[in-house]
Specification:
This protein has 242 residues and is an alpha/beta fold. The protein has helices spanning 16-27, 74-87, 100-109, 123-138, 160-171, 211-224, 234-239; strands at 6-11, 32-39, 47-48, 51-55, 67-70, 91-93, 114-117, 143-150, 177-182, 188-195, 200-207, 230-231. It binds nicotinamide-adenine-dinucleotide.
């Protein structure tokens, strides 16, 4: 068992996700030690609660780390990927909106470092994907419908998570259909329904707090430590077929 905490670099540390990562890491000092917090602009304070802070322009000078966790914006992604490749360190990234060129760089980097990019870091959703594929495989001919609900500010529909669940259903042989609801302040709900003759199965995931994404990313960073280079998935790390 690893007795020393994983030294992590948090890229995008001042953002909503970055702050959740910093707080959750600080709550588990035996598991994670943030050795560098990186933000777009020069930090007001160099050291906050014992954590050294850096501006994005100072990335090359950050201390050694065991894994980087990136929840920033597409314009910040290339430098942190390049840093991880140069230092031969794993990268966990949840940054969305990457261009096809950036996805290409991500794929290429997986030849030299362990990498995990995911549109959803919830451990529960990773398990739901596994269950959906298994259910679809066991229920040939059943109708499969995916209903996702989110807050009124979410613009894209169906959600990226719903589409990933649909891919899992297709892997199991189902032909999923989608429906989207936008209402109130719902953080995120995904219902996958399998309907047969006279019976119905409903598999539901409800997110009530954005911390689930930060917690999953920290677990992913620990899961990548010591792994061979490659592109990993949350589902793969959880179910041992990474
Ligand atoms: P935010 O706007 O609150 O924070 C963005 C952070 O990125 C800030 O710390 C900012 O300083 C930093 N940043 C911006 N440009 C940068 C640059 N060029 N170099 C370095 N750092 C830079 O955003 P957020 O809500 O925390 O989300 C961050 C990203 O994570 C978004 O892409 C969002 O879609 C994604 N996200 C993913 C998941 C998931 O599970 N995969 C969950 C939530 C959010």
């Amino acid at each position: 068992m690893n007795t020393t905490p994983l030294r992590v670099l948090i890229h995008g540390a001042s953002g909503r996700m970055g702050q959740a990562l910093m707080r959750l890491a600080a709550e588990s000092p035996a598991n994670w030690q943030v050795v560098a917090a990186v933000t777009r602009r020069a930090p007001a304070q160099r050291v906050v609660d014992g954590v050294p802070h850096f501006a994005a322009a100072e990335l090359a000078g950050v201390p050694d780390f065991d894994a980087a966790i990136d929840f920033s914006l597409p314009e910040g992604f290339d430098p942190v990927l390049a840093l991880c490749v140069a230092r031969a360190r794993p990268l966990v990234s949840g940054t969305t909106g990457l261009s096809p060129e950036q996805r290409g760089k991500l794929d290429a980097a997986a030849a030299t470092i362990p990498l995990l990019w995911a549109s959803n870091f919830s451990v529960g959703v990773a398990v739901l994907n596994e269950l959906v594929e298994r259910a679809a495989r066991a229920l040939p001919g059943w109708d499969c419908d995916i209903v996702e609900s989110h807050h009124v500010h979410k613009k894209d529909a169906p959600s990226g998570t719903a589409l990933t669940l649909g891919e899992s259903a297709q892997q199991g042989g189902a032909q999923p259909r989608y429906a989207s609801l936008r209402a109130g302040d719902i953080v995120g709900e995904h219902l996958v329904q399998f309907a047969g003759q006279g019976e119905r199965i409903e598999l539901v995931h409800r997110a009530t707090n954005r911390d689930i994404f930060a917690r999953g990313a920290l677990q992913a960073a620990s899961g990548l430590a010591g792994r061979a280079p490659g592109a990993y998935t949350m589902r793969g790390l959880l179910f041992g077929d990474a």
